[in-house]
Design a protein that fits this description.
The chain crosses the membrane at residues 260-282. The chain is mainly beta. The chain is built from five helices and 19 strands. It has a seven-stranded mixed beta sheet with strand order 7-10-11-6-5-12-15. The chain has a six-stranded mixed beta sheet with strand order 4-3-2-1-8-9, with no helix packed on it.
């Protein structure tokens, strides 16, 4: 069960993260286990206070959750800018290996919270004290394009654009994003494909992702929606829960990763869309 994950609601979801402390996504992507907000799924539990801001968006064809987290509380090294977990992987066995994803929250589920649907197409980026997770409705439209797994070097900004804010916990309705890589230039629909790593770092992308429109947002207090979680460990336990206010998750400075690549991590940039959740991973 530790490699069975769920995304149901803002108070009931899981993230993929390492089984052992001080690990990196690059070194353990095939071994990740599910860390969940609620007991009862047979998984590890995200410690109290680790989640520092979460936004869940329900669109016609997918559910997306993004936010800020003290990643050391789920066994990620403090300086790891991470990478993508997905159901395929280079060997088509998935990262993590055998990882399964379920949800009871799609419109096609008919509001029956006791019945889970297996999610076939999903993507999860972890690292830089941030995360995004998008699951596509198996009965929806265009799920393979909306939950692409071929833009793993571009992170949350291009795969799951959002308005997540540190210190805010909210649920919104939203429009579907344009599929990753698809954009309009001079009235023409174009498709961008990331270059192979052998060509070096990605220095430019021909378009800027747009955060889709959202509405009907409901804000929650974290203490009201997260209960039954274990106490934090290590530095977070002694420093207390820093879950309010707005601050950059990281400086976004290129940093060596476990495989010697450079990465630009999660950053918070105030602009037209509020917090622009970057997590752009460059090799």
């Amino acid at each position: 069960m530790c490699q069975t994950s769920f995304l149901n609601h803002i108070d009931d979801f899981c993230l993929w993260a390492p089984p052992k402390p001080n690990s990196t996504i690059g070194d353990t992507e095939g071994q990740e286990v599910a860390w969940c907000t609620k007991p009862g799924h047979g998984t590890r539990l995200i410690p109290a206070g680790a989640l520092q801001g979460v936004q869940l968006i329900k669109t016609p064809n997918y559910i997306q959750i993004a936010g800020f987290i003290d990643q050391t509380q789920i066994n990620l090294a403090a300086d790891d800018y991470g990478g993508e977990l997905d159901p395929h992987g280079a060997d088509l066995r998935g990262n993590p290996l055998g990882g399964l994803m379920y949800s009871n929250a799609f419109p096609s589920n008919g509001g029956n919270n006791d019945t889970y649907q297996q999610v076939i197409d999903w993507t999860n980026f972890m690292g830089g004290n941030g995360f995004c997770f998008k699951i596509c409705d198996p009965a929806g439209s265009n799920q393979q394009a909306l939950c692409q797994n071929i833009y793993d070097r571009l992170g949350c900004a291009y795969n799951a654009p959002n308005n997540a804010k540190n210190g805010t916990f909210e649920v919104c309705d939203g429009d579907d994003m344009s599929p990753p890589g698809v954009y309009t230039s001079n009235g023409q629909t174009m498709t961008y494909f990331q270059p192979p790593e052998s060509l070096g770092p990605i220095t430019t992308v021909p378009y800027t992702p747009v955060v889709p429109a959202s509405s009907n947002c409901v804000t929650y207090q974290s203490t009201a929606i997260y209960s039954g979680q274990p106490a934090p460990t290590g530095a977070a336990a002694s420093n207390g829960n820093n879950s309010s206010g707005t601050r950059p998750v990281s400086a976004g400075v290129p940093t060596p990763t476990s495989n010697g690549a450079a990465a630009i991590g999660v950053s918070s940039v105030a602009g037209a869309f509020g917090v622009f959740f970057a997590m752009v991973l460059l090799s």
